[in-house]
Amino acid sequence: MTSSEPIRQSPFASFAALVFAVLSILIFIGTAVWFWIQAPDTVASHFDSSGQPDDWSSKAGTLGWLVPIGVGIPVLFSIRWIWEKLPISLINIPFKDYWLERGERAYLFDCVMEFMRIVGGTTALLLTSVLVMIMREGRGATMPTGMTFLPTGVFLIITAASLINLVRRLRPPR
């Protein structure tokens, strides 16, 4: 491969991204079940900018909005046919026209799906950490401020790395 050729995706990378998304969803579901069994009836449902709880609700209410988001987003991001059925004009990614003009729609969507599955998986893991933080507060343990922001930082780093990888792989040869 020369430097002017695009960086092609290995089938393993696409499969690994799907496995990552599925495992992340399963970890989230397992944590939600643990939360349902172990959490007190009233839990912190909102945290201020310093990471301290400033609103409380029932654990059923908290799971009632967290579970659909924690499962729904990664599942939605992982189903390829949904994205392939959208009008291509709605998909806004760099260098899209270059690949479509060359008849490389499959490669384009391979790259997009790897990115979407990684972001979906990290979203599930971010919401898993939210459940753990809520549980700690519910049990009376406070989280150090740094630990409150760590999951968000990891989410942002992984998402940024995935975006950089997407752009790198879609960049046309020079």
Short description:
This protein has 174 residues and is mainly α. It is built from 6 helices and 2 strands, in the order H-E-E-H-H-H-H-H.
Q: Let me know the largest β-sheet.
A: 2 strands, antiparallel
Per DSSP, the total helix count is 6
List SSEs in N-to-C order. Answer: HEEHHHHH
Q: How much strand? A: 5-15%
This entry's quaternary arrangement is: single chain
How many runs of DSSP E, i.e. beta strands?
2
Q: Overall 3D geometry?
A: elongated
The end-to-end span amounts to 13 Å
Q: Taking strands numbered 1, 2, ... along the chain, how are they ordered across the largest sheet?
A: 1-2
Low-confidence stretches: none
Q: State Rg.
A: 19 Å
Mean pLDDT, all residues: 87
Number of domains as seen in the coordinates: 1
Bin the helical content.
55-70%
Give structural notes.
- Residues 25-65 form the DUF1648 domain.
- The chain crosses the membrane at residues 12-37, 63-83, 115-135, 147-167.
- It comes from Brevibacterium siliguriense.
- This protein is mainly alpha-helical and 174 residues long.
- It has one domain.
- It is 69% helix and 7% strand.
- It has six helices and two strands.
- It has helices spanning 11-38, 59-78, 80-85, 96-101, 105-138, 145-170, and strands spanning 42-47, 53-58.
- Strands 1-2 form a two-stranded antiparallel sheet.
- Helix 5 (105-138) packs antiparallel against helix 6.
- The longest helix is centred in the C-terminal third of the chain and has 34 residues, at 105-138.
- It starts with 10 loop residues before the first helix and ends with a helix.
